[in-house]
Write a structure and sequence with these properties.
The chain is mainly beta. The protein contains two helices and 42 strands. The protein has a 42-stranded antiparallel beta sheet that branches. The chain starts with a helix and ends with a strand.
């Protein structure tokens, strides 16, 4: 009896551990998928089933398969997967076909491993993929594949080393991507993320883009597709960009920058390029660098490109005389279909240098002209327009020149220096001025011919060379013929003798309506209201000729014609001036001898002494000494005696 009671107590105690083990084992087994009850009742294997995995109100995935089985450890397998729908947050589900799928884990933490003949459709991206494997990880919210991933979509196809689909709203990621577009574009990158379906791809790590003749490399890049043909429309690259491209009939273009934006038109040709940060563009012998460069197809449909560069702009190219450089704050340039510059504009501290030309201005414009390209330089504020060559130095409010020629059209407060010829070059004459020395001019405007042989100044012209001065309303120099023409309020100051130009008394000053200088015979001819002034007095006539010496540095003689009138003063013994007045048909003055000769051709020449000792002398030829005040009758007078206007 006691033994029976003992077993009644011992048996339940022995069964407790067994029951606990059974319960724990049951708790460790994963909750079975939502397999139809009939399939479960069929035993460990079912045919033609549908599996649904639901967590709360959210369906995680759905499987239509040929068969279903469950192992003793709870691992579930479906074979002949006709359709596996993998749900994604805020996106259409992935549609998968495969040979088999193994499932393990609890709801929300399941892992589905798909094998064999995997075919994936991504309706959101319009993409179809062929994968070696696919692992759906509900806990991580990802669907992953490694190996040779192949994919295609309208407009492109490609391959990758790995693929990760985001199930909780993350974008799709590829690793080791190579994408080929039907328009010829090829993208390669270490990593790529597809956002906004497949229209936008963010690439990172060793990114390379090839499209036709265009090559771009950068650490990071974003590519955008669109249009009816799903063409590549735009790329944005950052982190240090290099690239090259080529247009028909133009040299290859190489470029680099911190970042880049490039767009293509509907015709597949590049239409817009922006380089930012330390941008450099090289094309043959031409180069451009700036903080930012923007290149675009002309809006008017013309062939070529429009370039705009900003910030520390430096450009180099070829001028007719050789290499040339341009510096400015901002530059705009248009090129033709062959890459040749047809027009351009620069602003802000503009500087231009070429072998035979240098220029500065606040603004500069290169424009087509009837006789070739013209460079226009404009002043703003205190930044004058300046131009320098081997022939001249010019500054003005506005300057126009033709590169490769001596043409200059300057306007507004012109300051110019005509330079002598360099050693060994053919001598250039400044006409009325002495050869071998620079001549300076100020005027309202200046114009030089393309050859530089003709230079014209207009508007309150003043010219000088040392102490020799010329002023007029207009002055024109013909350097080839050593000729000068001045018109309107002409005034000149010339040294009497080369070695005696020290004080005002050593100069002859002439005013007239017109001046003509002929280098062939070294004669300066004045006409119209001519007046000659010097320390001893003045002479007036209708026409005057001054013959200069061989170096144009002094006066050989001076000849006055028609209605000549004089008034001179000499110093008498008592220190008082002794003025004389006279008239003649002609007069001649020789500075070396200080002698004035008066000629009476139609009527006798006359000299009248003024003051208390007054008297008149007449003759066909009268000779008057400026230094001594003596007057002599050379011929035709009533008296042949020597007559003095000073006390004797």
């Amino acid at each position: 009896m006691r033994r029976l009671r003992f077993f009644r107590i011992l048996l339940p105690l022995l069964l407790v551990p067994f029951v606990v083990l059974v319960v724990l084992e049951l708790r460790r087994r994963p909750e079975p998928l939502g397999v139809p009850e009939a399939a479960r009742e069929a035993g460990a294997r079912a045919e033609g089933i549908q599996v649904v995995d639901i967590e709360g109100a959210r369906q995680l995935f759905r499987i239509n398969a040929r068969s279903y089985s469950e192992s003793r450890d709870g691992e579930q397998r479906v074979e002949g997967v006709e359709r596996l729908e993998v749900s994604r947050k805020d996106a259409s589900p992935l549609i998968v076909r495969a040979d088999t799928a193994d499932i393990e884990g609890e709801p929300g933490k399941r892992i589905v491993r798909v094998h064999g003949g995997i075919d994936v459709r991504d309706p959101e991206a319009g993409m179809r993929l062929s994968l070696p494997t696919l692992e759906v990880d509900e806990a991580a919210g990802e669907a992953r594949s490694e190996g040779d991933v192949r994919f295609s979509a309208p407009g492109y196809d490609g391959r990758a080393d790995a693929l990760v689909y985001g199930l909780d709203g993350q974008p799709t990621r590829f690793e080791g991507l190579e994408l080929r577009s039907t328009d010829g574009a090829v993208l390669r990158a270490a990593q790529a993320t597809f956002v906004e379906g497949s229209d936008v791809v963010e690439l990172d790590g060793g990114v390379e883009l090839t499209r036709g003749e265009t090559r771009i490399a950068a650490p990071r890049m974003t590519a955008r597709r669109g249009g009816p043909d799903e063409r590549l429309q735009r790329v944005d690259a950052t982190g240090g960009v290099t690239g090259k491209g080529r247009s028909p009939d133009a040299p290859a273009t190489w470029f680099q920058a911190d970042d880049l934006t490039m767009q293509w038109g509907d015709d597949g040709r590049p239409s817009d390029l922006v380089l930012g940060g330390h941008a450099v563009v090289e094309q043959g012998t031409r180069g451009l660098s700036a903080d930012r460069v923007h290149a675009s197809r002309p809006a008017d449909g013309a062939p070529g490109w429009d370039y705009e560069a900003e910030g520390n702009v430096s450009a180099r190219g070829a001028a007719p005389s050789g290499p040339a450089t341009l510096q400015a704050d901002r530059v705009r340039v248009r090129t033709d279909g062959r890459g040749q510059i047809v027009s351009g504009r620069a602003r802000g501290d503009v500087r231009f240098d070429a072998p035979d030309t240098a220029a500065q201005a606040a603004e500069a414009e290169l424009r087509p002209g009837p006789s070739g390209a013209e460079l226009v330089l404009v002043q703003r504020g205190d930044r004058r327009a300046r131009l320098a060559s081997s022939r001249y130095r010019v500054s003005a409010d506005r300057l126009v020149t033709r590169p490769g020629t001596a043409y200059v059209d300057a306007d507004g407060r012109v300051e110019a220096t005509l330079l002598p010829a360099a050693s060994g070059d053919e001598p250039r004459s400044a006409g009325f001025f002495a050869g071998g020395d620079a001549v300076h001019f100020v005027a309202r405007s200046m114009n030089s011919s393309a050859t530089g042989d003709v230079v014209k100044f207009s508007g309150s012209v003043r010219g000088w060379q040392g102490e020799r001065h010329l002023s007029a309303d207009e002055v024109e120099l013909h350097q080839a013929g050593e000729e000068l023409a001045a018109d309107g309020d002409v005034a000149t100051r010339i040294p009497r003798l080369e070695s005696r130009a020290a004080t005002e008394a050593d100069y002859v000053q002439v005013s007239s309506d017109r001046l003509r200088y002929r280098g062939a015979d070294g004669i300066a001819e004045y006409s119209g209201s001519v007046r000659v002034r010097q320390a001893e007095g003045w002479l007036e006539c209708d026409r005057l000729e001054i013959r200069l010496d061989a170096g144009n540095r002094g006066i050989e003689d001076l000849r006055a014609f028609k209605d000549v009138r004089i008034e001179f003063r000499s110093i008498a013994r008592d220190g008082m001036p002794q003025p004389v007045q006279g008239s003649a048909d002609r007069a001649e003055y020789v500075p070396k001898t200080s002698t004035v000769r008066l000629f009476g051709d139609a009527r006798q020449a006359t000299v009248t002494r003024l003051g208390e000792r007054g008297g008149t002398t007449q003759g066909r030829v009268l000779r008057y000494r400026l230094d001594t005040g003596t007057l002599e009758v050379e011929s035709g007078g009533q008296e042949r005696a020597r007559i003095k206007t000073s006390d004797s």
